[in-house]
């Protein structure tokens, strides 16, 4: 269900009998290139998309946050005084099946709001309670980071009610802390930062060490298409943690603080003393950082062909060296790349399922989406979802 300012406002009015004071919106994202580089202090190049989580809210004069989730058709409530430092909780999506909704997720959505409130309070912010309704159209668990969109929408709502200034980088860090320490997902900073600081018409080159960001425009006449394989894997978490450990091990062996500081030449010199799997992981991360900087250069020049070529290389590296692709993702990327209007395609997000992203000629984007979906379905038997995306602004108060 596409959602917007008018719908969310009407939903709030239905429930509370008056209009909301504020509406906040925080987008999902797709990463164009720079995959599994964020936790190696490297570079990423995501764009915020025109799918978002929305909250309409009105402050209360107590410490209760009371929210109705339209998508789950379920109320959630907590007191800002009950948010004690958590023992790490299991990830909602890996909870026992009995606790899940029809889409395979536990209805743990309130934990993202609690975690964000906890994190803001831990940072010394004084918060106020509010009533709200929550809805979104970022598909859940598809790799478009609905969780970061929810955290940034929650942060924006908490900031509005508590009259805090909106500082995108600080709020992104606090959202990441909520996801790491409250929800228990060991993610990097990319998802929250692009959701907080995205720019319409642009991707954002993010230096995950300094957290400096630079908008880079999408090449003129191109569109970004997200291709959801409609496959999901439960093992993403353990594989992700294993990759992180392997990267840390490679950095230690190369005697650098993080793989961001290593070069391919240095890696080749040390290849003999490395476990072959660790070597491949490091080779992906180091080359992917280089590719991401080259991709930003290509975008500054408006060079869609070069950007597409780099996306293609990125996919091969993720498939062969980082080993986080899947048959479905490979099939989707092959179907996309075979289309005449495609500049390049790759898996995007953590991997093992979820989405691919393609850069295509804008005037042929709808044809590309239809043809690629059909080709993928013939090849795999899965029914994909496709989204032609616009690059949107980051979290905002409307
Ligand atoms: P991803 O971030 O890849 O979309 P996650 O598993 O990290 O997947 O986050 C999905 C979770 O975020 C959902 O299970 C739900 O708890 C929460 N969430 C995301 N969007 C919404 C929404 N519109 N309404 C309620 N909860 C949401
Ligand atoms: Mg997530």
Structural notes for this entry:
This protein is of the alpha+beta class and 398 residues long. The protein folds into two domains: 5-216, Ribosomal Protein S5, domain 2; 222-389, Alpha-Beta Plaits (2-Layer Sandwich). The chain contains eleven helices and 13 strands. Strands 5-4-6-3-1-13 form a six-stranded mixed sheet, sandwiched between helices. Strands 10-11-9-12 form a four-stranded antiparallel sheet. A hairpin with a 7-residue loop joins β10 and β11. α3 crosses α4 (168-183), α3 packs across α5 (190-197) and α10 (327-337) packs across α11 (365-380). The structure holds adenosine-5'-diphosphate and magnesium ion. The site of magnesium ion has 2 residues, from loops. Magnesium ion (MG) is lined by residues 145, 147.
- When the domains are counted, the total is 2
Unreliable residue runs: 91-106
CATH architecture label name of the largest domain: 2-Layer Sandwich
| Ligand list | adenosine-5'-diphosphate, magnesium ion
* Number of distinct helices: 11
Summarize the structure.
With 398 residues, the protein is α+β, with helices and mostly antiparallel strands. The chain has two domains: 5-216, Ribosomal Protein S5, domain 2, CATH 3.30.230; 222-389, Alpha-Beta Plaits.
Give descriptors for this structure:
single chain, 398 residues, alpha+beta, Ribosomal Protein S5, domain 2, Alpha-Beta Plaits, 2 domains, six-stranded mixed β-sheet, four-stranded antiparallel β-sheet, 13 strands, 41% helix, globular, binds adenosine-5'-diphosphate, binds magnesium ion
């Amino acid at each position: 269900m596409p959602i917007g300012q008018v719908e969310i406002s009407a939903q709030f009015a239905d429930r509370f009998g008056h209009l909301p004071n504020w509406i906040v919106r925080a987008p999902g994202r797709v990463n164009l290139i720079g995959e599994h580089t964020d936790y190696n202090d490297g570079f990423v190049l995501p764009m915020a998309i025109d799918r978002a989580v929305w909250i309409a809210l009105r402050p209360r004069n107590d410490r209760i946050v009371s929210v109705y989730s339209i998508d789950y058709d379920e109320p959630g409530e907590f007191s800002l005084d009950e948010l004690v430092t958590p023992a790490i909780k299991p990830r909602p999506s890996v909870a026992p099946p009995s606790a899940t909704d029809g889409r395979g997720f536990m209805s743990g959505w309130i934990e993202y709001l609690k975690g964000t409130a906890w994190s803001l309070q831990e940072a010394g912010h004084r918060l106020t309670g509010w009533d709200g309704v929550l809805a979104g159209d970022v598909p859940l668990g598809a790799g478009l980071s609905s969780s970061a969109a929810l955290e940034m929408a929650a942060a924006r709502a908490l900031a509005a009610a508590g009259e805090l200034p909106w500082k995108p980088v600080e709020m992104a860090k606090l959202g990441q802390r909520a996801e790491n320490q409250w929800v228990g997902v060991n993610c990097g900073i990319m998802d929250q930062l692009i959701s907080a600081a995205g720019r319409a018409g642009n991707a954002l080159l993010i230096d995950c060490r300094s957290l400096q960001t630079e908008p880079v425009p999408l090449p003129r006449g191109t569109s970004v298409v997200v291709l959801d394989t409609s496959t999901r894997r439960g093992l993403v978490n353990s594989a992700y943690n294993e990759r992180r450990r392997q990267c840390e091990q490679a950095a230690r062996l190369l005697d650098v603080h993080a793989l961001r500081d290593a070069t391919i030449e240095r890696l080749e010199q040390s290849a003999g003393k490395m476990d072959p799997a660790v070597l491949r992981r490091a080779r992906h991360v180091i080359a992917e950082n280089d590719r991401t900087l080259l991709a930003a250069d290509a975008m500054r020049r408006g060079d869609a062909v070069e950007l597409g070529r780099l996306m293609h290389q990125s996919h091969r590296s993720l498939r062969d060296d980082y080993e986080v692709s899947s048959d479905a993702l490979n099939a989707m990327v092959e179907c996309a790349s075979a289309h005449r209007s495609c500049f390049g395609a790759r898996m995007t997000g953590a991997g093992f399922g979820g989405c691919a992203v393609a850069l295509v000629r804008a005037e042929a984007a709808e044809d590309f989406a239809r043809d690629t979906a059909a080709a993928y379905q013939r090849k795999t038997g899965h029914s994909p979802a496709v989204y032609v995306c616009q690059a949107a602004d980051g979290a905002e108060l409307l």
